[in-house]
Structure formats: C-alpha cells, structure tokens
Amino acid sequence: MVHTKQPPAEVMHVVDAYPPKARQTWQSLRELILETANSLPEIKPLIEDWRTRYEDTLTFIGNREVRLPLDAPLPTEPLRHCIAMAFTYHARKKALS
C-alpha cells in the first residue's frame, strides 16, 4: 500500500508556486519514491553502482542531485533503482562493515 500522507504545508507552498509542468513532474516523482519505498524488503543489496549504470539516462550534479528535464517523461526504472539505493544506503553500508 502506498503511503498517502500529504507533504508539510511549507513544502506544498513551494510546490504550488512551481509552473504546472514542474508540479506534475514533482508529483510523479513523489509517487515513484513512495511506491519504491513501499516495495522494498528490509535489506536488498543492489550491486551495481547507479551513477555508472545510468550515466546515459540521468544527469547527476555533485553527490546528491539528479537533474530531470521537465519536457520529457520521467525515466521511471532508473529513478526507481536510485530511490531504492537511497532508502537502503545505511542498511547496505552496515551489512558491508
């Protein structure tokens, strides 16, 4: 079951100021994050490094940003993998030590 709690009012205030296409992209990305979070087992090691795997699909900025164009569909599967890696980062790091 997908978590449906609304974001805090402060977040929605910022999102409401986005242009319509950006709001739509934000909502699609939020839904993808929540779906991915709800589908993960407690620990699921993901072997391949996502930066290398998706360098042709996603634009990475620094260590924490994935830049998404507003005029193209969300690259759902690469993003799902990145989201899963983010949600399981500490568990995987702990399992390796």
Provide the fold topology.
Blueprint: H1 9-16, H2 20-39, H3 50-53, E1 59-61, E2 65-67, H4 76-96
Helix pairs in contact: 2-4
Describe the structure.
By secondary structure, the chain is mostly helical. The chain has helices spanning 9-16, 20-39, 50-53, 76-96; strands at residues 59-61, 65-67. The protein has a two-stranded antiparallel ribbon with strand order 1-2. Helix 2 packs across helix 4. The longest helix has 21 residues, at 76-96. The radius of gyration is 15 Å and the shape is globular. The model has no long low-confidence stretch (mean pLDDT 78).
The DSSP helix count reads 4
Strand order of the largest sheet: 1-2
Biggest sheet architecture = 2 strands, antiparallel
Q: Which regions contain 5 or more consecutive residues with pLDDT less than 50?
A: none
Report strand %.
5-15%
Number of strands: 2
Q: What string, H for helix and E for strand, traces the elements in order?
A: HHHEEH
Overall shape: it is globular
Q: Radius of gyration from the CA trace?
A: 15 Å
Helix content: 40-55%
Mean pLDDT over the full residue set: 78
Structural class: mainly alpha
Euclidean distance between termini CA atoms: 32 Å
